[in-house]
Ribulose-phosphate 3-epimerase, cytoplasmic isoform (Camellia lanceoleosa), 263 residues
Amino acid sequence: MPTARIAPLMLSLDFTNLASKARRKLHFGADWLHMDIMLVYVHLVELIFSISLNNFLPKKKNLLGFMLVYLQDGRFVANLTIGAPVIQSLRKHTKAYLDCHLMVTNPIDYVEPFGKAGASGFAFHVEVSKDNWQELVEQIMSKGMRPGVALRPGTPIEDVYPLLDGENPVEMVLVMTVEPGFGSCQKQWIRCINTVCTLRKKYPSLDIEVDGGLGPSAIDVVASAGANCIVAGSSVLGASEPARVISLLRKSVEEADKGKIFA
Ligand SMILES: O=C(CO)[C@H](O)[C@H](O)COP(=O)(O)O
């Protein structure tokens, strides 16, 4: 099995101090930093208000600068998002692997900005890329990023096979145990574990990442099924000893690999 990669979630961290939070996660033993990219809608009224406010302020005294507040309409997700500018500024502070998961309907639009910003991995959703995944993978690779494909809990595993068996295969499959944008709702847990297990048997050297509800109590099942990349949200963010949790997650993946139990 490929190397264990523990990837704490960066979404819920304090955005005003992301670089130092990232450094802390790496200090605690994180291998990757998992960046969730979600589509948001700007409320038009908010946009107009912000522009007007900016115009009203006298030019020389405009020390407040321009602050645009993004709101979401709940049509896609109900959480905060990270965009290319955040990746770019984080990249200035760290050489760490920035593991980007694009929960958007048009991932191709994000390839160039994310490549320029310094993203390391670019995982797009198979559900929205059935018609153009080949072009997408080529573009991701041409921008120096590692292509990955993500699937929602209910998506049939067969949907990702073409992306793994083709000429330019993706290098990682991200199995979501929760619906993108939401947490702690593992209605299809068993199905997801079976997906990981089937993938590991078929692709022994593939990076298989699992995202959603992973902490000390759930890791053994996922690791035994064959996952080697672990996204850890609340289990690390809420831990009093994050380093201990990260080390425990890694140990479970490494032990499972020694036992090679893909149950
Ligand atoms: O945003 C997400 C899914 O879209 C998170 O990656 C997911 O909820 C993980 O969090 P946790 O480990 O706390 O379940």
Observations:
- The chain has two domains: 5-40+82-259, 41-75.
- The CA atoms of residues 101 and 123 lie 5 Å apart.
